[in-house]
Specification:
alpha/beta, Rossmann fold, 8 helices, globular
Amino acid sequence: MDSAFMNSFSAKLTEKGVGVVRFEFPYMEQRRHGGSKRPPDKQDILLATWKKLLLQLQSDPLYSDIDSYFLGGKSMGGRMATLVLNELLEMNAFLHSKIKGVVCLGYPFHPSGKPEKLRTAHLPELKKPLLVIQGTRDALGNQDEVMTYPLGDNTTIEWLEDGDHDFKPRKKSGFSHDQHIDRAVTATANFVTGL
């Protein structure tokens, strides 16, 4: 939750008036405290972590008075947010009224080098708007690939020219990583305030 990318993105987003709550999945928390590099938790644990966080926010007076929540995350965190969304909306009327959309920063449309293993089947069924911010040369879903996927009417994609999965462009592109992060922040803030 405190990678250079997340620190920069979160700080810039809060400067635009959008509050950010960050958390870690259990495997990342264990990496932080134990030092060993573990693979990600199984999907059921990742989704349970999302649910637990949102239920905590619901009961915390500091957050329960906020009018709008947006789920989001970088890569797998964003994907898990899309997977948990409809379930949360069905199980909890409070969250149904509060959650307005999802933001994915570099969505992992497929594993690296395996474009046939799509992770998109649930996206057309999302009950809230989805903003995906994606580099045009992302190895987990580049622009040419993603434009052929049926993603549903609720999905908007903001393309970052020559960006990779972390939005980093090549030097020859004429863009900088900071420019792409700034553009991603602006797109996110506009998405949030627009809803």
